[in-house]
Design brief:
The protein is of the alpha+beta class. The protein contains 2 helices and 9 strands. The protein has a single domain, classed as Alpha-Beta Complex (Peptide Deformylase), CATH 3.90.45. Helices cover 18% and strands 30% of the residues.
């Protein structure tokens, strides 16, 4: 396992769409291990593969209250319900946070590390993290959702991880 550098704006890979994983093999499992280690080292809640420079549809999420992380390969959101304003930050845009609209609940599906289809119905922080990380796989950053640039604010120095700042309002 390795801690890898997290790509930051204006790195163009962050705006590219990741490719579907065709085969879950040792290279994908190594990628997942590296993503988890990198996310933990950065005190993040989630990480998408393109944030470490790999254009594969893989995300990892580990909420503070959960015992185990979620690993999602080829994830897609199948439905969204409701709308709420949330505060988000991102490891790829350090030093800033913004307010955007996210779903109240999402349903998603993808594969686990064994290749089995996994379906998740999520609300709260998990639904927000799933939307945020799948957006990354589609080349979309949370700042692309800002309805008003006044909704983006610069944080004081040493304010911690940006992905750990996912909150609802």
């Amino acid at each position: 396992m390795s801690i890898l550098p997290i790509r930051q704006l204006p790195d163009l890979i962050l705006k590219q769409k990741a490719k579907k994983v065709r085969r879950i093999d040792s290279s994908i499992n190594r990628l997942i291990a590296d993503m988890l280690e990198t996310m933990y080292a950065a005190s993040g809640v989630g990480l998408a593969a393109n944030q470490i420079g790999v254009l594969q549809r893989v995300i990892v999420i580990h909420l503070p209250e959960d015992e185990l992380p979620i690993v999602y390969i080829n994830p897609v959101i199948t439905s969204r319900e409701g709308e709420r304003e949330v505060e988000e930050g991102c490891l790829s845009i350090p030093g800033y946070r913004g307010f955007i609209m996210r779903a109240v609940q999402v349903k998603s599906k993808g594969q686990n590390q064994e290749g089995k289809i996994v379906k998740i119905t999520a609300d709260g922080l998990l639904s927000q993290a799933i939307e945020h990380e799948i957006d990354h796989l589609n080349g979309i950053l949370y700042v692309d959702h800002l309805t008003n640039h006044n909704k983006l604010e610069k944080l004081p120095p040493d304010n911690g991880s940006m992905d750990s700042m996912l909150t609802t309002r």
